[in-house]
Amino acid sequence: xxxxxxxxxxxxxxxxxxxxxxxxxxxxxxxxxxxxxxxxxxxxxxxxxxxxxxxxxxxxxxxxxxxxxxxxxxxxxxxxxxxxxxxxxxxxxxxxxxxxxxxxxxxxxxxxxxxxxxxxxxxxxxxxxxxxxxxxxxxxxxxxxxxxxxxxxxxxxxxxxxxxxxxxxxxxxxxxxxxxxxxxxxxxxxxxxxxxxxxxxxxxxxxxxxxxxxxxxxxxxxxxxxxxxxxxxxxxxxxxxxxxxxxxxxxxxxxxxxxxxxxxxxxxxxxxxxxxxxxxxxxxxxxxxxxxxxxxxxxxxxxxxxxxxxxxxxxxxxxxxxxxxxxxxxxxxxxxxxxxxxxxxxxxxxxxxxxxxxxxxxxxxxxxxxxxxxx
Length: 375
Description:
The chain is of the alpha/beta class.
């Protein structure tokens, strides 16, 4: 049976006692035997604690304890570094990703859940909670993917508007989460521009305040598959954001402009102002005289300042981005049919951000509690 383990204080006391006995002329073997130990133990003690007093022994114990703390700290830091290295690929921005990462770290390094959660910043209750998800998550995901496939240039906010208009009650943040999880690409945002300082007399100061207050029109150029050019005359209501007309033909001149405006004036009545650039078809004297004769006024922008016709320029950009850049028209007739179909879709289905993601002119207003689900 092993003997009792001596404390360092007792060892120092016995060593001092042996020194006293030796000073009295007693042999080492007899002195060691008298204090109750063996010569091997005595020499081992003298090697460790020889010449020490109680003050030095106390300091030695403090250093040993400090050394233990340092070794434990180094060990913890090394283990934390291994955990962080193992979890380094990717950003842990969500609890679900942290949950998967912690499971991987525990399986790879064999560390405890407590240590992995503390190192990676995950609460243990969050780690243990099993996400159940919503019952309609799968259906919503399918609808989002279908809308993204159908309208390739729409971002998640536009898709959110389409979903809410079709009967879903969904927040744009939830749609964005599913959008990014499914790897859908958000269209690139337009670069920011500096503030434009305008003169008080600029026609951009004319803000639309009601329907039929300010219309604007402009031309867009494109080509059919055979390389022949065609033009579109786009006319919009700046207040309602409705595309009133898109006339498509190989050539459009001032007479065609008057003809298009005549059809709209008969159907909707003349607006108070018509905004346009200084193209020859718009500043022609016959066009100006005719517009004034029916009770409307022209509002021409400054030459070389297309931003003053911002509503129509924005519509032209959407028109080109969502339709013209993605379609090949093999004939003028095909272009006329598909462009008119897109105009109807733009007015009745496509959400508009300036209108709270509602279409400019929906075909019907369905009460919120009677809207059908897309499935």
